[in-house]
Amino acid sequence: MGGDEDRGGLLYGPQPDVAGAAGYPDAPPRMGFFTDTSVCIGCKACEVACKEWNAVPEDGLELTGMSYDNTQGLGADTWRHVAFIEQRKPFGGQEPGVAHDDVDVFAAAARLGTDAGSPGPGSTAPPPGQAPAGAPAGRISPLSPDGRTELRWLMASDVCKHCTHAACLDVCPTGALFRTEFGTVVVQEDVCNGCGYCVPACPYGVIDQREDDGRVWKCTLCYDRLGAGMEPACAKSCPTESIQFGPLEELRERARARVAQLHAAGVPDARLYGESPDDGVGGDGAFFLLLDEPEVYGLPPDPVVTTRDLPDMWRHAALAALSLAALAAGSFVRRPR
Amino acid sequence: MAECHPVGFQWVMEAKARGAKVIHVDPRFTRTSALADLHVPLRAGSDIAFLGGIIHYVLEREKYFRDYIVAYSNAPVILREDFGDTEDLGGVFSGLDAAGRRYDNGSWQYEGTEMQAASGQRDTEYDKRTGGDGSLTEAARGEAHGSGGAVIGEGEVERDETLTHPRCVFQVLKRHYARYTPEMVEQVCGVPQDLFRQVCELVTENSGRERTTAFAYAVGWTQHTVGTQYIRAAAILQTLLGNIGRPGGGILALRGHASIQGSTDIPTLFNLLPGYIPMPYAHRNEDLDAFVEAEAAHKGYWGNMRSYLVSLLKAYWGDAATAENDFCFDYLPRLTGSHSAYETTMAQLEGVCKGYFLVGENPAVGNANAKLMRLGMANLDWLVVRDFSLIESATWWKDGPEIETGELRTRDIRTEVFFLPAAAHTEKDGSFTNTQRLLQWHHQAVEPPGEARSDLWFAYHLGRRIREKLAGSTDPMDRPVLDLAWDYPTRGRHAEPDAEAVLAEINGRDAEGRPLSSYEQLEPDGSTSCGCWIYCGVYADGVNQAARRRPGREQDWVAAEWAWAWPANRRILYNRASADPEGRPWSERKALVWWDPDKGEWSGHDVPDFKKDKSPGHRPPEDATGPQALSGTDAFVMQADGKAWLYVPSGLTDGPLPAHYEPQDSPFPNLLYDQQRNPVRQLLSPHPDNRYQPSGDEPGSQVFPYVATTYRLTEHHTAGGMSRWQPYLAELQPEFFCEVSPELAAERNLEHTGWATIVSARGVIEARVLVTDRVAPLTVHGRRLHQVGLPYHWGPNGYSTGDAANELLHLSLDPNTHIQEAKAFAVDIRPGRRPRGPASVELVRAYRARAGIDERTGTEP
């Protein structure tokens, strides 16, 4: 680990200034996605908007039988993927109540109540996620007519994680993969030579080679849109704000509050995934709120940047080379005359 | 709603975020259920029993909003002595002519008077009112169900505000729903009593002075032989609970397309003119005065129908419409009967209808009994299809299923088919009217490619060319076309008509040509013109109000400056009911509009749906008519009596109160009444490809033991014309599939992702199988029922293909709306692919033989 500190957290561990470390002076705040799967309705607008904006090719008509998921997973031709998981677990697992920091309804409603002589419904609007006083007790017992007491349908939109320590980028020999000023990781299609080193390097199995041209493709976090001050296509199209785009620090704060809210609402399974800078990739630029174990969604439980051990490996390699040299030298020394 | 209206569902999520509880009632567990607090699976086709059960709960436990219903509904009104309810007559209402499959609604009237329905079947009183000679043609009889009863105005209604008179609407309602007990709901719908109780508690606890509950529905409620009565049941419930005309309340019809609301406001329906003015029937010697006399309600805003109609005629025929020629009233076509889509198909089969326009519609996939639709088209002289792609309705003559089975041969088909590519909404200007009656303008983003043109371009230039061809004609038959005001400005290299000029015409103008701002300005003397009276004001001050896009955060919560809602930019209809009879909000929390005694006018957040200076205490003089006849507490201003109707004395063909009848094809007998099916459902003339199935305990009914329902998926759009050709959408749901429970899969050896063959008396289709817990078996009538889910998007053309679920459906229609019963029918399902060619026809024949089906099966009253 000492080697990482020497490198200023370039390969492992927390890295608060990922763009700065990549050589951008005065970089804008790091941008990312917070995908709150507890409000995802599985409409797949993100998948279609992504393909439309980025001209990603259609990649085959296959009825998989995996619930409504016929996309199957992220790849060269799928940069957003909505997973559908049917479970025999209690109803009500998905809970809305997401705070819309930048959305008007609550503010407008609250404003209304403060106006004199304006006794509108907004005047007594409760804060988001809380039942207003006098609301129905609403005791809801999970019960299904055939005696099955458990059924829940999880939906979650997956995407490239834009890791703090991106192994794909670290192993790229051509410089086709680069860190943007927004802290995201992007492939330059005109530089990539199709060597494919990055493919096994990704701990999430995201980056992938396109069959017909051999080059690798993945989510750019709509680098072109970001540069023009627009949000990524998937976040723009999401009707329920399951996909939220913004400065990563803000998103992390919002996400932690959301988890607390869900825990308070009796959803103990709610947890964040990829949010912590202390995890194996130094935290994801695109992180998630999940309602079950990551494996349920097809996500690795404890991803580690595959280049974490690179310094150690080099040290070991150097040591090994040294030993071999010493051994060789020794053999000369000890050679009987 | 999340499944088919994901964009609208964001507001449900907003409501949930503010503490709202969401209940989802659906045979399947859908994407909506996944986000709901409570999912209630029920047997498809049993919703009146379910809603009737809630009505029973509300009445039994006195959970209704008493002050609201006494003031604003017809609950206190006393009915005639000769009215007979289903309780008295074994499941039917008085006035039934069983053989003629029609009701005479004379006995349904209020004691002492007779009402004209505000909308719907309004021609019912023509003879009485005009002293006519019974000239309705034989063909129109189905619409002309009413003839008895006193003419309106002969007496005041009798009221009992204590609601205790045995013949008052409230008491009739109580008796009618007494049998809709939780036990009955469990038996009929398959909803366990505990689950049902939770629904009743959630709905009633969330209604009253302080709180309101909204109902949202889509075609899962309308596509039944009793579809209109489904909505009526919800209307009764919402009225009892005081949830109409108030913020957070209402009954919201989720539409199937972006502007279905718009296409009923300015209708593509055979029996309506713009703004819900009825289309005239072919009565002898009916002039404008006689029409208005027969159709207009004498009280309420429909009393001004003459102003609306004359202004419409002025918009159609301009200077040619004068007082001397009755404003060209005689130019309007006349109805000789019902000419709904399915009756038009039958007319094609009979050789009566010879030409057909299909504009953005794919009946060869999207209509019930798709085969019959194709056979009808194969009997036409000409067919025009305007669509984005070569949909099945444009190519059935060369590659349709009947070509494969040998039932049709291309060389024998004499129909000349024209395909004209259509422009998409992004390629033209125009407006969408959504379910909230909100007109939202969209601007053209790009020119349409190639020969694609907008529908407006097509209609305008078609009319222009026809008029050129007819120019100089002296045939009086051509006058209505030649006299049309057909002068729209065009622009661009394709001479695209200016859509805003059309909007301005719809809005209307005064005698000087200035844009009108309100339908209250419309005159009966021809000095104003208006293409659709309810849209009057959308172009007020010469500004396209529908194009307003002021963000919500810059406005109050009503957001009145986002687009424009008809009528008068009012966001909630009948909002006078949000205040008590004295004009004070029922509660501060739910205040919307209120009487301001200092200013002497109605005020509030929304535009009041009431005459601005009519005080709550106003009582009209006895001889008043139209809006002047409304009192200060007649909140339901479009109704002939100003009241919300718990009971419908006039306007419905199939009864004043909703009663549960089994679907046309049902594996179950009707537990609630001896009457199995809606006795006045609309059956079309017998056709070998439209056979009905035995139901309930009849022999052969168990040949089709499973209940099936059709629906949509988020990833596709209706009959697929807009989605199956799109690779990005096709790959998300690449193939037609059916959804079945693990239990049904085990019972019928169906394999996950394998093939299943599904059969009805009409057709056979194959589908891939999705085995899922989301389709749960139910216990109905004490036995286990399996349901089969069938998304109906697919057909043989396009990038993603599959059989059309609508091949299975029959034509047995709601008698009010002529809508098919696509949401509940009975099928058999078996493993494997269907037979090909003539063998598939043979399989259906064999099933019919096994079930003992002939042309009389299922046609009993």
From TrEMBL, chain A:
List the SUPFAM superfamilies hit by this protein, alphabetically: 4Fe-4S ferredoxins (SSF54862)
Chief localization: other
The record lists [4Fe-4S] cluster 3 as bound by C160, C163, C168, C202
Annotated positions binding [4Fe-4S] cluster 2: C50, C219, C222, C234
Q: Where is this region: Disordered?
A: 114-142
Tell me, what is an example of a GO biological process annotation in this record?
cellular respiration
Which sites bind [4Fe-4S] cluster 1? C40, C43, C46, C238
Is the keyword DNA damage assigned to this protein?
no
Give binding positions for [4Fe-4S] cluster 4.
C172, C192, C195, C198
| A Gene Ontology cellular-component term | cell envelope
What keywords would UniProt list here? Answer: 4Fe-4S, Iron, Iron-sulfur, Metal-binding, Repeat
Q: Where is the composition biased (Low complexity)?
A: 114-123
Give GO terms: molecular function aspect only.
Answer: 4 iron, 4 sulfur cluster binding; metal ion binding
One Pfam annotation reads: Fer4_4
The family database entries (PROSITE patterns) matched by this protein are listed as:
4FE4S_FER_1, 4FE4S_FER_2
User: What's the domain of life for this entry?
Assistant: Bacteria
**Which cofactors, if any, are listed as required?**
[4Fe-4S] cluster
Q: Where in the cell is it found?
A: Cell envelope
Classification via Gene3D superfamilies: 3.30.70.20
Q: Which InterPro entries match?
A: 4Fe4S_Fe-S-bd (IPR017896), 4Fe4S_Fe_S_CS (IPR017900), FDH_Electron_Transfer_Unit (IPR051555), Formate_DH_Fe-S_su (IPR014603)
Name-wise, this protein is: 4Fe-4S ferredoxin
Species assigned in the record: Streptomyces lucensis JCM 4490
